[in-house]
Amino acid sequence: MKKYKVGIIGATGMVGQRFITLLDNHPWFDITLLAASSRSAGKTYAEALGSRWMMKTPLPAYVAEMTVYDAVEDAEKIAPQVDFVFCAVDMKKDEIKALEERYAKLECPVVSNNSANRYVDDIPMMIPEINSDHIAIIEEQKKRLGTTHGFIAVKPNCSIQSYVPALAPLKKFGIKKVLACTYQAISGAGKNFETWPEMVDNLIPYIGGEEEKSEKEPLKIWGHIEDGKIVNADDIEITTQCLRVPVSDGHMAAVFVTFENKPEIDEIKKLWKEYKGEPQTLELPSAPKQFLNYFEEDNYPQTKLHRDLEGGMAVSIGRIRPDTQYDYKFVCLSHNTLRGAAGGAVLTAELLAAKGCFDR
Ligand SMILES: NC(=O)c1ccc[n+]([C@@H]2O[C@H](COP(=O)([O-])OP(=O)(O)OC[C@H]3O[C@@H](n4cnc5c(N)ncnc54)[C@H](OP(=O)(O)O)[C@@H]3O)[C@@H](O)[C@H]2O)c1
User: Which of 121, 179, 208, 338 is most buried when burial is the number of CB atoms within 10 A of its CB?
Assistant: First the structure.
């Protein structure tokens, strides 16, 4: 596999830093360019960052010395220097939309962690194990953008990345209704206990916009391509409550589900065990070998014990049992900044690379 030159737009941010740690020594991708706001532009990455490095591993020396570009002003200079960019920026939605489209139109593919382009019907929103077939929509998107090479692919919100994987192999039973309560870590808000001391011994029952995303995004992932668009699934009802809990990393979900044709519990466990997507068959570098992991212990999965399973890219499930109002209930867990954010974007990029989408 040839090595691809990768730019990180929003490199100084929390997600940008996570990209740097995940891409350091990556077998297919080399970090060759960093960009952020005009506040950081022209400085070395270490200078621009100041005391903001939040990762547990040290900042790689070659990255510390790189000069940061201005993501907006320097777009024309950046695009020809890289094979694609990861994008995670804190800007207004319409500005992000315009910025990502600008890079795509400069023939630079964009793999985005931002939400601005998630609901555009010719932009794939990927959980690579579940909807790799949506990559086909990129050709339609290129026609709209007038590009031969540039396109945008996005990843979904971190809140859905435990229960959508757990439900994916069960779709064949006709999922009718889902209720999911998520218990979300503070790193999802870009915080830790030092920067958000109010979260120690506390729970906040509101995360702005999260319930809407958690109910809407699964329907796009389970949608199909028709007449040049991704058409959302319309046969599944989803309702959610999203709570912020005093946990550093790892989003847990308590899920209730009712089916058209109710399967047996053993059948469900077998499907979880056997479930594989293209990342597993293609043996992508960041793919977990076992995507869905069911634990028989009554008190598993636990956030602290299981969030880092397979580099934080695997999903842990437990406690499936019958419910009095729904067919079944269970719990599931995924690492919100790895599988749920930068790791999911890296896996998406690996899938796009394996399919030749970054080749000119
Ligand atoms: N599940 C997910 O996919 C997920 C998870 C977490 C976050 N996100 C999304 O990822 C994005 C970044 O989140 P974060 O937590 O990393 O934010 P952050 O820590 O606040 O970092 C923001 C980044 O954006 C850059 N930036 C701000 N204004 C800019 C401008 N006008 N032009 C160019 N760059 C600009 C900043 O550069 P300076 O340092 O120069 O200011 C910094 O690099 C957000 O859209 C967030 O919603 C997604």
Answer: 338
